[in-house]
């Protein structure tokens, strides 16, 4: 997940958490506030009642028909004042209590106050119906909810905008790094940003890319020089041997020795050329702008090997479905790739054996080519090391290779992002190649 | 014919010259680009054998310069350690007539020089003959008094190469180098042993028309196409 997405997620989650907590706590807060407010107003009501009693005397309240009690409800019966004789004086209380109203019990917030007047204790109760308080609750609650939603949304939007703006250089840096292909990245202009961290990051990345380019160029130069320096003395020896062989009346023994030396020199040349080729591929010194038809290149390779195939009396079976085409490839490298694999299939086969070239596209998988030969099985312990440089399984095959053919195959496979696998059993050996860059030109047959 | 060998390595230049003098070429040497430029300006050469890694300049630069200014008649063959396809293409595009990556076989160089000479003088010399056989290079066919001798691609290449160097001993390695070039793989003696199989087949096919032994085996070394006077 991108940094920006993570920050957006974090902000959204924290806001959601805040909103959830507030929404859960709001009823309680609102209730508490509303009750406190009601209690306050009940207390001030009590003071007004007490002032009235002081001014007009208690008798005007307690009239003849009900000499020990006076209950007064207001017009909407939301509030009442109840005055009566009390047995003894008690401390003031405020509580939510049920009271009879039209034969029903209704909850009221009731303030009870006892006082002494002329030796007689009285209780005054002032009540407010809870229903009227709850109206206030609802109003407060919706007000709070709107305010909360507004606050959460506006801060969220602002934060997202700011995050987006602040992190734009990160996106640009990532985009630039993605665009870097191969070891020769083009020089980049400095990034426009006022954030010093990003400035430093950008400068460091640009410096590193520059360094990579420099090191790569030095390596390439070294390879070119090394190849020249190594191949020139080899050329001298080769030419000298050839000139020596042309001399008349050369003793036969000397001729034989020269030919043997030539063979050794030839081995050295082959090793040198393959090593140079591997390092050149690894340095991406090969262009990749050919479109290669797999069937055609395999056909060319088989044609190239026709004499050896005929000599060993081998049969080649074809079962290639569709017309797989490899995009952005290097044609001559792919020829070498299949040549090495198939020449091995010829070399390690038995006379009258078989080579099978199959290819198919399984759903959701890259195109798969399999090269099978009926050679002697390769022991399981050798299989993982088959593609390593100079790894010779001399006890497996009678003829030793130079130990670089399959290493070259692997290098070319990596260069083209192919996946390579080898399996071997009593029936024979199969090399499987998955070609992720291959497309089927005319669809599978 | 005059040949200018542009090569900074003295020993290599001497070996080249030894072979070319044997082939009746007259050799001149240049060790640096500047020296080569000067010689190309003053003298006329039929061939310039050009090494690309010169101490003072890149051989390709010299090639471009030589092609632009003077010595337009000289055939330039690049002999270089830089043997990749891209290098070859850029060399040939700059006007080189041929490109041989180091190390090359002197025989191979010799036959390429012959081929260039033939082309230059309009002598396509499409046919070569020995005994009653006629080999046609453009058709890639071999006939004996009108009847076709069917050869595989490799057999044809091998016979042609032996014929070009008739009278000379060619080692299996030289023949294999010519047939398979510098194809990169785990090469081994199999390829040079394979030359024996090819020669055996060629003998059998020629023998059906003419019982004389044209290709002589030189024990432990290789093969020689017998000069006509011997057969």
TrEMBL record, chain A:
<dbReference type="InterPro" id="IPR004358">
    <property type="entry name" value="Sig_transdc_His_kin-like_C"/>
</dbReference>
<dbReference type="GO" id="GO:0000155">
    <property type="term" value="F:phosphorelay sensor kinase activity"/>
</dbReference>
<dbReference type="InterPro" id="IPR005467">
    <property type="entry name" value="His_kinase_dom"/>
</dbReference>
<dbReference type="InterPro" id="IPR003661">
    <property type="entry name" value="HisK_dim/P_dom"/>
</dbReference>
<dbReference type="Pfam" id="PF02518">
    <property type="entry name" value="HATPase_c"/>
</dbReference>
<dbReference type="InterPro" id="IPR036890">
    <property type="entry name" value="HATPase_C_sf"/>
</dbReference>
<keyword id="KW-0418">Kinase</keyword>
<dbReference type="InterPro" id="IPR050428">
    <property type="entry name" value="TCS_sensor_his_kinase"/>
</dbReference>
<keyword id="KW-0812">Transmembrane</keyword>
<keyword id="KW-0472">Membrane</keyword>
<feature type="transmembrane region" description="Helical">
    <location>
        <begin position="7"/>
        <end position="30"/>
    </location>
</feature>
<dbReference type="GO" id="GO:0005886">
    <property type="term" value="C:plasma membrane"/>
</dbReference>
<keyword id="KW-0597">Phosphoprotein</keyword>
<protein>
    <recommendedName>
        <fullName>histidine kinase</fullName>
        <ecNumber>2.7.13.3</ecNumber>
    </recommendedName>
</protein>
<dbReference type="InterPro" id="IPR036097">
    <property type="entry name" value="HisK_dim/P_sf"/>
</dbReference>
<feature type="transmembrane region" description="Helical">
    <location>
        <begin position="143"/>
        <end position="167"/>
    </location>
</feature>
<feature type="domain" description="Histidine kinase">
    <location>
        <begin position="225"/>
        <end position="439"/>
    </location>
</feature>
<keyword id="KW-1133">Transmembrane helix</keyword>
<keyword id="KW-0808">Transferase</keyword>
<dbReference type="Pfam" id="PF00512">
    <property type="entry name" value="HisKA"/>
</dbReference>
<dbReference type="InterPro" id="IPR003594">
    <property type="entry name" value="HATPase_dom"/>
</dbReference>
Automatic annotation (TrEMBL), chain B:
<keyword id="KW-0902">Two-component regulatory system</keyword>
<dbReference type="GO" id="GO:0006355">
    <property type="term" value="P:regulation of DNA-templated transcription"/>
</dbReference>
<dbReference type="GO" id="GO:0000156">
    <property type="term" value="F:phosphorelay response regulator activity"/>
</dbReference>
<dbReference type="InterPro" id="IPR001867">
    <property type="entry name" value="OmpR/PhoB-type_DNA-bd"/>
</dbReference>
<protein>
    <submittedName>
        <fullName>DNA-binding response OmpR family regulator</fullName>
    </submittedName>
</protein>
<keyword id="KW-0238">DNA-binding</keyword>
<feature type="domain" description="Response regulatory">
    <location>
        <begin position="2"/>
        <end position="117"/>
    </location>
</feature>
<feature type="domain" description="OmpR/PhoB-type">
    <location>
        <begin position="125"/>
        <end position="227"/>
    </location>
</feature>
<keyword id="KW-0597">Phosphoprotein</keyword>
<dbReference type="Pfam" id="PF00486">
    <property type="entry name" value="Trans_reg_C"/>
</dbReference>
<feature type="modified residue" description="4-aspartylphosphate">
    <location>
        <position position="51"/>
    </location>
</feature>
<dbReference type="InterPro" id="IPR011006">
    <property type="entry name" value="CheY-like_superfamily"/>
</dbReference>
<dbReference type="InterPro" id="IPR001789">
    <property type="entry name" value="Sig_transdc_resp-reg_receiver"/>
</dbReference>
<dbReference type="InterPro" id="IPR036388">
    <property type="entry name" value="WH-like_DNA-bd_sf"/>
</dbReference>
<dbReference type="InterPro" id="IPR039420">
    <property type="entry name" value="WalR-like"/>
</dbReference>
<dbReference type="GO" id="GO:0005829">
    <property type="term" value="C:cytosol"/>
</dbReference>
<dbReference type="GO" id="GO:0000976">
    <property type="term" value="F:transcription cis-regulatory region binding"/>
</dbReference>
<dbReference type="GO" id="GO:0032993">
    <property type="term" value="C:protein-DNA complex"/>
</dbReference>
<keyword id="KW-0805">Transcription regulation</keyword>
<dbReference type="Pfam" id="PF00072">
    <property type="entry name" value="Response_reg"/>
</dbReference>
<feature type="DNA-binding region" description="OmpR/PhoB-type">
    <location>
        <begin position="125"/>
        <end position="227"/>
    </location>
</feature>
<keyword id="KW-0804">Transcription</keyword>
